[in-house]
Design goal:
This protein is α/β, with parallel strands linked by helices. The chain contains 5 helices and 6 strands. The chain has a single domain, classed as Rossmann fold (3-Layer(aba) Sandwich).
């Protein structure tokens, strides 16, 4: 088994903690609790020929006033950027997170998740996904619509990232 550090990064209240909880514990809560600092979870990710022990770092969300603490990124093998599909400003801030990741861990694969897709109609979510793919499709390894609430896309995101970290 190979251990890999995975970080989730994004603005506050995009659902990073909920996304991790759905993945690790298969649980969801509507109660919002802001992450302070970092919380680390573990989960084994079974691939075809290998198992990756994911050390999943839930990093407190960034704001315009208080950017993400970049020391948490050091040593990461993969990154998931989480944006809230219902809040346009969180999508606009993706470029800032990509720059930060590129400066600190340039070789790490990056998956982009447009979380809270359950809050939009399918056609609207797909239109936003297409716009984001046009803007960031060449910069990240993959882009997903996801929902921590329903669990949609959660397993696929971590599986894809684990696979990307090994190739």
């Amino acid at each position: 088994m190979i251990s890999k550090k995975i970080i989730l990064i994004g603005d506050f209240a995009t659902g990073k903690t909920s996304f991790i909880r759905r993945y690790v514990d298969n649980q969801f809560s509507d109660t919002y609790l802001s992450t302070i600092g970092v919380k680390i979870s573990r989960k084994n990710i079974a691939l075809e020929h290998e198992t990756v022990q994911g050390l999943i770092w839930d990093i407190e969300g960034g704001t315009e006033i208080k950017p993400v603490n970049t020391t948490y990124l050091t040593g990461a093998h993969g990154c998931i950027i989480v944006a809230d599909i219902t809040r346009e400003e969180t999508i606009e801030h993706i470029a800032n997170y990509l720059k930060t990741i590129g400066d600190i861990i340039p070789s790490a694969p990056v998956i982009l998740v447009l979380n809270k897709r359950d809050m939009l109609e399918n056609i609207t979510a797909k239109n936003i996904l297409e716009q984001v793919k046009q803007q960031y499709g060449q910069t990240v390894n993959d882009i997903y619509l996801g929902s921590a609430k329903s669990g949609s896309g959660v397993e696929e995101v971590f599986y894809t990232l684990a696979h990307s970290m090994l190739t």
